[in-house]
Amino acid sequence: MSSIQDFSAFGEHLLNFSPAIDDAADEVGRQMSEMIRIRVRLGYGTSKNNVKREKLRELKPKTIERRSKFVLFPGSSPARSHLTMTGQMMNSLTYRKEPGKVVLFFNDAYADKKALWNNEGKYKRPFFYLTSPEYQQATKIFQKALDDYVDQIASNL
Amino acid sequence: MAWESASVVVKLKDKELPRNYLERVGRELVRVIENRTKAGKDKNGAPFAPYSDSYKESDDFMLANKSKNNVNLKLSGEMLANLNILSASEGTIIIGFRDEEQRAKAHGHQTGANGTGKLPVRDFLGISEDELAEVLRKVPPPEKLKKAEDSLFAEALARMRLSALVGQTAQPTKEEIAKAKMEARMQLIDTYIEGSEIL
Fold it and tell me: How many DSSP H helices and E strands does chain A contain?
């Protein structure tokens, strides 16, 4: 039978797994913030995690009138409900890594306040969750890191 | 509905391959389709038809920050994100879309909006023989492993039956056979770790 010494190579490989997961976490952070940003700009929100996207609630005539007086983000129009006027709020969506998790957040205090108000406020248009395809994409990224890692171990044995 | 056919079916020769192996191959096949589509090529390796001028000038195109020359079937990214393994059993892997909306989008791309001409045909959902061969080279079937395990198990079973035949023991029970199978696997894993020629 094998002795414990035979597993030393596995031990070394397992220690090396951490950077692979770290890179995958970066990729998840980058891709999730981009997917949410584009989904919202196209006019879709979601009221909870892992469900289908929904059209954001339409704007009130008063809001449309107010928006018509501003220079809007390229591609936007006064009547389009997509939480975008100058683009500053969604542009500030980014991520950070913490042990065992990826945190998506708004790196500007005012944008963060606006996002919270839109997501949970009185006239809310919830958007700050992951839709099911977004979840699937995040899962794929971690799964690829795992598959590549297992391949690497197998090729080294 | 017609768009329910928006899937790829890959049949491997060996019908007894383990499910986790089929899923591993399936994940690689999904990545092949995703990467090729992102690179702007259809299932035959031909470049996708360019975007129409009206689409390139549309608000959605601008809002999604798309590149005019990179035709990659990606606006929100949800369609390709939803491409996944639908089933993997008995040597057959089926790849497609669980979500109806994404499946309908994929069908639209493949058929040019059902042949209406509203969209050009961009047939991205498929795997060429070369692509499949490349994936199988990357993820080789565990045939050698399985054969070696079967041979070790057969040897153990033969010993047990021979022992019963000469009256030294009773015929092996189901539990003893299962245990022998497990021991054969463990013996094989030991050999694997010790770097024998099995792999």
Answer: 5, 4
- Which chain A residue is nearest to residue B196, measuring alpha carbons? A157
Chains A and B: how many Cβ contacts under 8 Å?
80
Q: Which of A2, A41, A132 sits opposite B190 (nearest CB)?
A: A2
CB B157 within 8 A of CB B173: no
What is the per-residue pLDDT across A86-103, written as a single tens digit (0 to 9) for each?
999 999 999 999 988 999
Q: What is the pTM of this model?
A: 0.80
Residue type, A46: T
Q: What is the ipTM of this complex?
A: 0.88
Residues in chain B within 8 Å Cβ distance of A133: 77-79, 81-82, 99, 102
Question: Is A96 within 8 Å of A19 (Cβ atoms)?
Answer: no
How far apart (Å, rounded) are the C-alpha atoms in residues A142 and A22?
10
Closest by alpha carbon to A108, among A92, A85, A127? A92
